[in-house]
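We emphasize that the prediction below concerns an isolated chain of 531 residues; any contacts that depend on oligomerization or on bound cofactors are therefore not represented. The input was used exactly as deposited, without trimming of termini.
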Amino acid sequence: MNGRAILHALGRLMQLMAAFLLIPLGIAVWEARDWSPLTRPQGYAFIITVAVALVAGTILQFTCRAARDEQRTREGFAIVTLGWALLALLGSIPFFVYFLATRDVSAPHHIFTAFTDAYFEIMSGFTTTGATILTNIEGLPRDLLFWRSLTHWLGGMGIITLALAIFPAMGIAGYQMFRGEVPGPSADRLRPRLAETAKVLWGVYLLLSAAETTLLMLGGMDLFDALCHTFGTMATGGFSTRSASIGAYQSAYIDWVVILFMFLAGTNFLLHYRVLFRRDWLAVRNNREFHFYAGTVLVAILITMAVLHFDGVPAAEISEQHYQFDSRPTVAHATHVAAEQEKLSSFDGLLRHSAFQVVAITTTTGYGTADFDVWPRSIGLLLVVLMFWGGCAGSTGGGMKMIRILVVLKVAWRELRRMVRPRLIAPLKVRGYTVEEKRITNVVGFFILFVALFIVCSIIMTLFIPDLTTAVAAVAATIANIGPGLSGVGSTQTYAWIPTAGKWVLILCMLLGRLEIFTVIVLLRPSFWKR
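Result of the prediction step, given as a token string:
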């Protein structure tokens, strides 16, 4: 392991982070129309963070420049994992300073709690999880609101992928870094040069982001809200500028725009490129993963609509048991349930809210227009299953990815056939092409490891959360990078009340889910760090 080669790459990433931190700093100055942001906590926190990232990054880049070409596969894995942890640390400084200034930090453990909350919020942003510890989002300064949404957008397509596009000479381990960050069992190249592929992906990302921002502004959002919600949609993150998420706008037009772009964000961006720039519509017709993804979403919407139509939203006195950690009084809760029933009283409302929640959960975006935690429990179970499935490989969605689920189902079906015909030779095929056995082994191994980590982390979380549903849902929502879960971490709840130790477990879950487990777990092997 070459430490200097790793430090060189980390220096480049810190320089890139410094550049992006100038945007929320500029918003702070613009909002005040003077230099008063320099006297506000988050204002000077942004300045300090920019200075630290720029100076430290430049020093690392120049002092370790000679080792740049000594990167290999192991260095690539280390750069991705350590880079994400480091950038989340830098990005959390403005929130940490803001929490210190607005909270009671008279005791040392209060300071550590403030740091944990800041790191949790920004790690949730970069990993596009969307889980939040904020209870009054509207009360947050606009510069911090924009920064937390921008972390979504940067983390969605990938910080290192962006660095490869801007700094082509990141080192010869560039593909391993790209592979470690791009979701899915494989990272395909569109162009021979990796930097060109990174530019293509970010170009498509920018184009779709600009389109959604324009459409949201046509629906009545101002530029600030449109950008923040575009960042959350295209990155399948879910951070909103409103406590009630997209539901705060009470607009069918905005709901359908967000549904469309959440679905697009859950689709492989290489497929977008082929359709938008090459007019290759055959790519859509031949892409089995996209068919499986679209079919899953459609079937889930129909099932949700049918259950809600025939069962409806349970009465307040029945659904109240879903809120073991809800502080709302009974009267307010009954009013809340009545409001949910009203939303689904028409066919338009039934279709729109069912489609929104299914697409939001399947793509792991996590936005909400309704509180699905008071819906029938069968729908809650369906949504939890969809959390694990996630979007397509090469999308910004989390979860296991549709292609892996498709391969696992095909493997299971093949083994059933072999039980009847032991001598059967049946190569596994997707889209007419035979899948290599080593790729199948990789997919099945990932599936087993994902489920195993989910179980272990769920058991650990039961030590901090007495409610089993909440403990399990919190792990599922973070390891699959979704955000909202069920019960105490449902769509109208936050993660603020979870004990500090439990938050660190969930932080690890977010990182494991975003970097798809292997990239992080491989660093735990002692042999990995040997030369």
